[in-house]
Give the backbone structure.
Amino acid sequence: MPGFVVRRADHRIGTRDPRARDVIEDLTMANLAGLYILRWYLRGEKAMLGSAKLVNGFVCVLGLLSTLEAFQKPFRQYHGVEYYEFETPPDWQEKTEWAFARLMFPGGGPGVDGYYPRFQGNWREGSSLWTQDYPRADRHFAQAVRRLTRIHARSVEQPIDLEDGNDVYNWPWLYAVQVGEWGLTSAEAKILREYLLRGGFFMADDFHGDFEWEVFKRSMQLVFPDRQILDIPDKDAYFHVVYDLDDRYQIPGQAHVRLGFKQPIQATSPTDGKGDHWRAIVDDHGRIMVAISYNSDIGDSWEFADDPAYPEKYSALGIRVGVNGVVYAMTH
């Protein structure tokens, strides 16, 4: 069944109930049947577990999961703009419950793509804007998910081309970098909209200043012309699903630690790009579909998490924001 995000069982399952908080780290893409069990347990309907109809339903679900796994695209590795050659972890073929899905996309061209005229080949073959921080950030964060949660995370990432069949629907959490310099097309926006409305989650990161904000906002209007970008309330589950993130701050990239923020090429003032903003696009039930880290570079906080020269406090927050996003995506 292509086009079905398998981890979403019921958008009403949240983390306000303490019984759900006790098991939250076990709720992963491969545990769809477990999500239904939890829902019935919280509603006091445990007796349903004994019915033959329920057992047959679980058999169907497990069969569906096996079938969907067979349709997933194989792991692919590309050259990046920062890392041209890199080793593949020995366990890269391990079958897991979650993988870091990185969105591939075309650059925005002259005046938008900060790399222009460099790295302007076929973006589907790597060495393009979407490979910023790749794959070091992806693999560092995957290790953090392994260590800080009970999610069985894959050691390697999965690059995702929105127009490559139905592959995007196999990956419940999707990440993109430099979204203020990209050139998202109308066709890609249509697929991204469908993915998000079916339960997918998209983390948009590493764009700075007024100009890049306008580029990103226009692209989101292609995706959702009828939905607004909102500030995420402090009490939203996104900031509390695993870690309580009341004390948030701007996360600068490795090259901008001294100044504390990235001043973009098209800066409109000396402070353009300063100040952290955590925003979102939500669905009709208030579920975050697009989580936006504007004026921060969370990707660098993962990429340089093992670099003594990069301040630990930025990696600490960046990893916690990422972990919250993954668990939120798997449970909402």
